[in-house]
Fold this protein.
Amino acid sequence: MPRDSIRLDTMSEFRKLRPVARVYITMVALTGAAVVAHSFYRLTADPLPTQWLILAALTLLTGSFTVKIPSIAAHLSVSETFVFVAVLMFGAAAGTVTVLLECLIILFWMKSSKPLHQILFNMAAPAIAIWVSATVFFAASGIEPYSTRAVPLGVLFVPLLAFTVLYFLLNSWLVAFALGFEISKSPLDIWRKNFTWLSVNYFSGASVAALIVTYTEKLDISLLIVIVPLLVVSYLTFRTAMGRVEDTNTHLSDLNKLYLSTIETLAMAIDAKDQITHGHIRRVQAYAVGLAERLGMTDEKQIKAIEAAALLHDMGKLAVPEYILNKPGKLTAAEFEKMKLHAGVGADILSAIDFPYPVVPIVRHHHESWDGTGYPTGIKGTDIPIGARILSVVDCFDALTSDRPYRPALSDEEALRILAERRGTMYDPLIVDTFAQVYTEIAPQLLPTIVPRAVLSEITSATQSASRTDTKAAISSPNALEALTMYELSRALAEPRGIRGTGDVVLTHLRRAVAFSQAVVFLYEVASDEIVARHGTGEVTDAVLGLRMALGQRLSGWVGANRSMIVNSDPVLDLGEVATTEGLRLRSCLSAPLVSDGQLVGVLTLYSEVPDGFTDDDRRILEAVAGQTSDAFRRAIDVGEPDVRQEPVTLRVQKSVEASVLSSAARG
């Protein structure tokens, strides 16, 4: 018989239950107590014959043989037969007391400590179910207990069928509602998935009970000889079958865990390629699954699809060059087009895998926009898979609240404000609104939501890019001012100079062609694999000299590592609080690598107080100057002139709400 016990996986005390669950369990327990008390009162007023003791003994004996039902906290017992016999022979009160005995023996043999409220519920629910269904059976059919007057099997058949159905529905639904209230899932889904097939046990028990009461004039030892062996065989058969089911479920669970761990390992390797901490995919996964459940999704295949897609949504970044993924500044139009390829490429790669749930559509469309302006296909509204709409919101939120090479992390409030601004254009309004309400509740507990600033250097570290360009060859058609600057600069650098002398000459000539507020010459130290601020001009030069950056760190370090220029990035990402000192706010940055004979010499970086203060002409001029002066700076290093400052400078990178948050959504 199934005694469907509530197993509260994470809450073992009654006060920790949800309010609705506490109220429901209390009501069932009190009702059950009233039913049991009424049944004992009826039996006291009209004592049962001694034959009932045989049923009680059989119930206690067969109740000891229980089988655990796979996937739910319920047990099956063959003693159900004697509960039906007690009802048919002696009435509703006798059946209630018999089912109470059955519950007690099952709880005893389960040998597991349970909270008091679970024990009370497990006894109350079946008592209510059998009393109500038995009372309705006798009242509706007009049949009296067999101990008073027997009826033919043909007369009993239809009423007994109705009685069995009602008993099963009441017993299973009482438990399904309790589970639903506790774990916030639909009781209908719980009942349909876990309880429907258990009805077979009820009908088999009712069938045997009908034969016993119809063809046995009295209950005696002969009943034990005939019935008990059949019940024992049924028990052994069912236990073997359930054992096989349990083994199969365990095997499938182990395979699923292996499958997911393999996916996660691959996903983490992909995530590392764009220099994002490995916690990113885990956080996105936790947010996505949690948000899907809060939106009322109950389809297990959809939940599994979202869980896997969250790990694999950036698979297509394998096709995006690293210098684009890790670029500290804004992406150019051409670079953004390459970045956009990752959604379709990732889906095409995953299409070769025969997923048991719809992962590929989520990956393909997680950058589509609600208004149809997204990519790769431009679908809109509810045509976008629900999993993709969920993933796009949580992916953007985690990207905004994490440090990235192209901007520092934003606060949760700033990120939510940006999501709200994009509500109805980029993102599904319902999903944005729901996420804003529950994001603190579904946030992963074991992983930081925001990467500590102390590891910003790890976030921005980049490998040497295979895409290298000859900066001298990149210069084309300089105007007269550029030509004059290059000519005078070459003459001024003809004689050997130290670092300060070379720096003064270069920056003096450069200022004639490019407007900047601050300039810094970083030179590369091979031993430490760092670039060091060795010379500069501008208001914050004294504060900057001596600053060290690991190759790949911050803006200038990224330029040195990748030997690629950046244009109009935020100087806060490079100089930290120095860029926002009193009376000065540096707002844009232009940086170029110094390379001589294929070897990194350093980085030449200019800063401006004007937002987007550097033009394409400025970029071309600095590229030309860097190409022409790299040899001079290498010779200046060989001169061995001492540093202006030897002690390293530690700078704190601050947040900048003016960061390019759109890049967060594009790069994920």
Residues 87 and 95 are 5 Å apart (CA to CA). The chain has three domains: 3-241, 253-456, 471-657. Residues 3-241 form a domain with the Arp2/3 complex 21 kDa subunit ARPC3 fold (CATH 1.10.1760.20). The radius of gyration is 38 Å.
